[in-house]
Amino acid sequence: MVIFAIYAVIFILFEDYDRAFLQPFEEASDWHLALFSLVVMAGLALLLHRYAHRMDERISREQAEKENAMRRELTQNIAHELKTPVTSILGYTDTILDNPGMSSDTQHQFILRTKAQAHRLTALLQDISTLNRMDYASEMLEMERTDVSQIVADIAEETALAFAQKQMSLHNCLPQNIIIQGNPSLIYSIFRNLINNAINYAGEGTIVKMTAEQQNGSWHFTFKDNGVGINARHLPRIFERFYRIDKGRSRSYGGTGLGLSIVKNAVVLHGGTIEARHAEGGGLQFDFTLKQILYTHKSKK
Q1: Residue-level pLDDT at 167
Q2: pLDDT at 11 over 80
Q3: Fewest C-beta atoms under 10 Å: which of 185, 229, 261, 297?
Q4: What span, in angstroms and rounded, lies between the C-alpha atoms of 271 and 156?
Q5: The total number of structural domains that make up the chain
Q6: Inter-axis angle of helices 2-14 and 28-98, to 10 degrees?
Q7: pLDDT at 301
Q8: What is the DSSP letter of 159?
Q9: Which residues contact 145 (CB under 8 A, 6 or more apart)?
Q10: 99: alpha, beta or left, given left = phi > 0 and alpha = psi -120 to 50?
Q11: 3 state SS for 16-80
């Protein structure tokens, strides 16, 4: 606007901006025209400023309303997810207390179910706590030299029995030199949640494969399975908190509905990106990156 005003004044005062010798005109009408033009431009500038201010207020208001709606929805989802295991725990314990003559076998089954719901409640609270730390205290997360390869190897050992029980196999093809500056707990959450998601939903007999390569200062990871996959309409939303493709099936496996959201947030906090798509030949594939590489070492023989 300022540059436009300067050019306009020069053009009006000197009649033509490309003259070899600029000579101001002297007639009063010309000066009146120049003054009128400046007043018009000042008025237009004021109107544009007010319009921009109103637009900023409108955008801020709409953004605030959207954030409030998201918070309300999140609060409702959390309350609903917490209510389910709590209701089950109260129901099982009340049944045991109200039936003193219950057989020991039945009582034992109810106690086991109560314990399972307590574990689910604990997992849900832990996931909510993890997301809150990433949302509101990300600057307090400690970043340190983190061996991603070793973390994934440990997870592979931890989940070996679960893979065997479903006749599934994990092909860990990650190189042995993936060392980044990161938060070990969040790096663990990324790979553990992806593996848990595959174990729970990919289907029996599935092969899960992880690969990685270094490109342009980042590690590019591919995590895929050849399982049942998901409908294309669900792909854009699978990273949303508490979004479930099949609510009943998800809860039967003890899922909290927060695993993939934790994965995405943790990847973003490490300077990366992530996307989900259908794998070639069927199944689900996640492609993501992790930045902030500081160290590398030779592969183990």
Answers
A1: 95
A2: no
A3: 297
A4: 25
A5: 3
A6: 170
A7: 36
A8: T
A9: 179, 180, 181, 294, 295
A10: beta
A11: CCCCCCCCCCCCHHHHHHHHHHHHHHHHHHHHHHHHHHHHHHHHHHHHHHHHHHHHHHHHHHHHH
d(CA 150, CA 187): 11
* 207-215/169-172 β-pairing: parallel
Residue among 177, 137, 172, 184 nearest 293 (CA): 177
Across the range 247-261, mean pLDDT stands at 66
Does the model's pTM come out above 0.85?
Answer: no
Output the six-digit token pair for 185: 């707990």
232 exposure class (CB count in 10 Å sphere: 0-12, 13-18, 19+): exposed
Element (H, E) at 201: helix 184-201
Tell me how crowded residue 120 is: count the other CB atoms within 10 A of its CB: 19
Calculate helix-pair angle for 184-201, 148-158, nearest 10 degrees. 40
Q: Is the domain of 125 the same as that of 186?
A: no
**Could you tell me if 244 and 147 lie in one domain?**
yes
Is position 85 within any domain? Answer: yes
Q: pLDDT tens, 263-277? A: 999 999 998 999 999
Do 227 and 164 lie in one domain? The reply is: yes
Check residue 295 and give its pLDDT.
Answer: 43
Mark which of 136, 165, 182 sits at the end of a domain: 136
Token pair 């029996």: residue: 204
293: enclosing H helix or E strand: strand 293-295
Torsion of CA 108, 111, 117, 118, to 10 degrees: -140
- The verdict on 94 and 45 lying in the same domain is no
Checking if the pLDDT of 102 tops 70, the result is yes
Shared domain for 151 and 175, answered yes or no, is yes
Measured between alpha carbons, how far is residue 277 from residues 146, 161, 189, 236 in Å? 28, 28, 20, 9
Q: Is residue 72 part of a domain?
A: no
Domain ranges, residue 127: 78-136
